[in-house]
Amino acid sequence: MRPLTLVDPQEGSRVAIVGYPENHGLTAAPGRVGQTTRFVSRDSYGDGPVVRLVTTIRGMIRPGNSGGPAIDEQGRVETTVFAARIGVDSGYGVPSSLVRDALDLAYGAIRPGLTGAEAHRLVCELFEAHGFVTQLSKEPGQVLEEGFFHSLGHGVGLEVHELPGLGRAGEAIVAGDVLAVEPGLYRKGFGGCRLEDLVLVTDDGCEVLTNHPYDLAP
Fold it and tell me: Which of 24, 99, 178, 213 is the one with CA 20 to 30 A from 47?
């Protein structure tokens, strides 16, 4: 069967809103992608301003659809339903390719001499530019429950978790390091997405060791 690919939302696309409404069987309700709007607001902790990208979806959104994909006629995931006005003919999603963008950003940055803290900061800045809270700007002692609240990754060797860390206090990366790179975004009460690859640090960059598709296979 043909795998599903992730694309940015296209206004006017007909989509199937997939989920388990009201905890019953899997359904695919018809819908249509609306406009993607950029606006400034506060985050869930009342801090801000933050910039958000929100895509409207026309369709019958019911409990159980939140966190599910909106799949277009070409079998591509255009957006993911993160919140909804339940029971009415509208809903809201966010572009679903942002975590993959973070993974690609990390690939381009990782090289000898970069610190794990610098790699982590780059991904945090990307997520914060799209309105998600991260460890970069949280208050001391604040416990994050959504956004990007863990490190970008860690070294892998004889143990699953080894140096260098890719977090707020990450050490310098050297050639020969094998790293687990795992950006993720989460929405409290709905779910989230994390992508993880293993990379080998080379003399001038990194080589991706993972050989597995990122698409959602039906």
Answer: 99
Instruction: Indicate the pLDDT class of residue 159, thresholds 50, 70 and 90.
Output: confident
Dihedral pair phi/psi, residue 101, rounded to 5°: -60, -40
- Residue by residue, DSSP assigns 203-214 as SSSEEE------
List domains and CATH numbers for the chain: 5-94 (2.40.10.10), 98-208 (3.90.230.10)
The bridge status of strand 91-94 relative to strand 76-84 is antiparallel
Tell whether the model's pLDDT for residue 48 goes beyond 70: no
Is residue 31 within 8 Å of 98, Cβ to Cβ? no
pTM of this structure: 0.58
Q: Which residue has the higher pLDDT, 99 or 56?
A: 99
**Gap between the terminal Cα atoms of the chain:** 7
Q: Do the beta carbons of residue 63 and residue 41 sit within 8 Å?
A: no
Backbone angles phi, psi at 110, to 5 degrees: -70, 125
Cα–Cα distance between 109 and 177 in angstroms, integer?
14
Q: What was the pLDDT predicted at 114?
A: 94
Angle, CA of 199, 200 and 202, to the nearest 5°: 135
CA distance 216 to 218: 6
Long-range contacts of 191-196 (CB under 8 A, 24+ apart): 191/66, 191/67, 192/146, 193/80, 193/96, 193/99, 194/99, 195/99, 195/100, 195/102, 195/103, 196/153
